[in-house]
């Protein structure tokens, strides 16, 4: 009966019952034995599920002069009936500091496909191809003349996933889950190439982050809210992804993240936390907009316990995204009309001149501190 209720909810959008904590097997449990595992080329394969899911690859770009952009391809399937793909490109502060000045493009993709190894994605006017060594993506797009892409994102440290496979499973039968959530990261990348707009050509030489994620069920059933941060310093890269499930799955918090530097993962795992010490109600959305934040990472390196912290004011938000106003119609059908579902994303960036500081402490040693560039999101769904 639980399986039937969930299948009905996943297909037509009805509310889920409260299954309780036994209906979710989090990656946190995996991480008790294996805090994290390094990615192989096979781990970068597209799953392209033929059931309700949203699978994405997203590249966050931070140029040497502090310009921030994102490139995302979305593969979406509804109940195994239809698949759509979308390319999203965003350059923050394209013309100035206000939300209206960002360049935001969201284009449907036609004739999408994958290479034989399922590691490269193609569509009309777009290719995101992984090289033979499995350590760099070449992104080329002429899908929209408002942003022509020619970029290379090359990892300079191993990729990682929490636990053995980076996956949290949903369902009352652990052997036959009805949904999943998976994240895999390249936390520290070298970026070269450009994005050309009608106004100018942007040199995006600098740092980058790559994330491959799967929500193998309706997005608003998998998570009620999200938190994400990447922080890039000259020596270190910090990354954290946290989601909280709806009450259907006991409002469970899952947090994965790590600290990397050139050539190595310093530490990674699930013992991380984000707190918003200062927030205020946004009168337009009624969501609590963060004003300041503290991110903490805990783990072990070869010398024992190690921790990292970033904390401080977020300043004015860079943007607030009304998700239902920006996503394609078929994806919108996954969440539209569900009572209490109002997805908004609050985005914050810090250019080098307004940097926060990453503090890393190993054992009883003196903390190492470095300033860097921040990009973070606080997402509220339901």
Q: Spans with pLDDT under 50 lasting ≥5 residues?
A: none
Largest sheet: 14 strands, antiparallel
Mind telling me the CATH class? Answer: Mainly Beta
Termini separation comes to 25 Å
Task: Examine the secondary-structure arrangement and name the CATH architecture.
Answer: Beta Barrel
Give the number of DSSP strands: 27
Superfamily (CATH H level) name: AttH-like domain
Number of separate structural domains: 1
Report the β-strand fraction as a percent range.
over 45%
What general outline do the C-alpha atoms trace? globular
Computed over alpha carbons, the radius of gyration is 20 Å
Q: Taking all residues together, what is the mean pLDDT?
A: 89
Which percent bin holds the helix content? under 10%
Q: Could you say which structural class the secondary elements and strand pairing correspond to? A: mainly beta
Number of helices: 5
Q: What's the CATH topology name?
A: AttH-like fold
SSE topology:
Blueprint: H1 2-12, E1 24-25, H2 27-31, E2 36-38, E3 53-63, E4 68-78, E5 82-91, E6 103-109, E7 113-114, E8 121-123, E9 126-130, E10 136-141, E11 148-155, E12 160-162, E13 167-170, E14 179-196, E15 201-203, E16 206-215, H3 219-222, E17 225-232, E18 236-244, E19 253-261, E20 264-269, E21 271-281, E22 288-301, E23 304-313, E24 319-322, H4 323-326, H5 329-335, E25 344-350, E26 356-362, E27 368-380
Antiparallel strand pairs: 1-13, 2-12, 3-4, 3-16, 4-5, 5-6, 7-8, 8-9, 9-10, 10-11, 11-14, 13-14, 14-15, 14-16, 17-18, 17-27, 18-19, 19-20, 21-22, 22-23, 23-26, 24-25, 25-27, 26-27
